[in-house]
Amino acid sequence: MATGKRLGRGLETLLGRIGGGVPSEPAVNTTEEGGMPMNNRIDIMKIVPNPFQPRKIFDEAELEQLAQSLHAHGLLQPITVRQAGEWYQIVAGERRFRAAMRMGWSEIPAEVRDDVDDQQMAELALTENIQRKDLNAIEKAISFAKYLETYPDTTHEELGKRLQLNRSTVANLLRLLELPQQLQDAVCQEKLTAGHARALLSLKAEYEMVGVASKIQAEGWNVRETERFVQDLIKADPLQEPGQEWNVVDENGRTTAVPKRSGQIQQLENEFRHSLGGMKVKLVQTNEKGKGKLVISFANHAEFEQIYAAVCRSNRAAG
User: Which fold, 4-17+30-139+169-174?
Assistant: First the structure.
């Protein structure tokens, strides 16, 4: 397997400095599709995307703007491809390729490279997108995971160095793939930020994550507010390790060490939280006869109304 040192100068040798812009002087427009001599053009129908392309969503407005620029000025910088049988795989320049397709071009100026292997293709696709046009957090995470699965000897730190990112950035992005799919979709759709999503990962139950995510959107919480709410929720239901004990105060004020709460009590708390949209709930049993208390915490009038509706109005409707 190729080493991680190859990326830095190696990619600049292949493509020039990524993000360095286009040539200051446009190439001579030899046809209405502009840019390069015909002998450097490739049939556009023989070109396929980079199989390691992490970007799944391309902004339609930006593609249209780029297409209009191609129409007016031609292609100032050819795309880069490698040959794969009868096809050409894009090494760099997929947005330019898509814009040319949109304009109905039959051919496109391209530089064909025969010295780019699969690992370089994956690294180039990541680097071009991260440095030139940010992917959303989930797309980054998926592309990192795919790369690490393909090249399992690569550590998070090594991948970070190749992409000029901190190891913690790589690790935090990969953790987002632990989210339920609907929350990953919410991050892609910019309904949740990556910071909100990381806070939700501290919760154990999927329905709690989804419930708190709904509150984030309804209340407009920032990341700090979300982190505080999640930590309060966790403190209300500490999941004890096997063998630990609880200190319980009985009705006479005596403190007794008892085994951790039963799974049934924890399940009941979870059901209450689920019914109340993820609010903080604590169920405490104070003696063997079943005496105890149920504490439901609310942070504002809206949450109180939510509790009132769930408990009182449902009872009235049933009566």
Answer: 3.90.1530
pLDDT tens across 174-203, in order? 999 999 999 999 998 889 999 999 999 988
**Distance of alpha carbon 75 from alpha carbon 68, whole angstroms:** 11
Domain limits, the chain:
4-17+30-139+169-174, 244-319
Question: 94 catalytic, yes or no?
Answer: yes
Give the number of other CB atoms < 10 A from CB of residue 271: 13
Q: How far is CA 315 from the centre of its chain?
A: 42
Cα distances from 258 to residues 116, 129, 233, 242, 255, in angstroms, run 65, 56, 23, 13, 9
Among residues 94, 123, 208, 303, the one annotated as catalytic is 94
Q: CA neighbours within 13 Å on the CB side: how many for 145?
A: 13
- Per residue in 74-93, pLDDT (tens digit) is 888 888 889 888 999 988 88
